[in-house]
Design brief:
The protein is 39% helix and 14% strand. With 187 residues, the chain is an alpha/beta fold.
Length: 187
Amino acid sequence: MAFIILGVTGSIAAYKAADLCSRLVKSGHDVHCVCTAKACEFITPLTLQTISRNRVFTSFDDEKNEWIPPHISMTDKAALLVVAPATANTIAHMAYGFAHDILGAVYLATQSPILICPAMNTRMWTHPATQHNKRILASRPNHYILGPASEGVLACGARGAGKLVPVDTIVQAIQDILDGHSPTQCI
């Protein structure tokens, strides 16, 4: 099946990355996880390593023993980069091409399609800056934005848009992209 890079960022929804990774592996995909430092406060690299059966990258320090840096070698093989959950911070960094962490470097090196699944507080999602950054990313070739859910109770207790879409929806979008189709729920 496909070589998939799963980027995980520092949202409370990061715990859902374990379920997403598990479903992809059970479908026969080769999943390689890249976590931001803040993601590691919500889910451990060991959890994702055990589920994916692959080394998890969390910083540039993880690349020191490699001849070709993994943020390049992984993207050479990738059929898809999925960032789920994607925080407002990560979306902003992607929109403006910052590579201050390994996930940013992976994003800039990726030539394959990119699926971005936002998850954040409603006010953060609806802020004009985040909406501007979303439009920048959506305008790029082979970039798909899935979500967030338009309604729901968020971890902070607020109600509204901002929740990560269900894992089933993400898995279906991944399969659509891998099959060469534009996912219907994406912008």
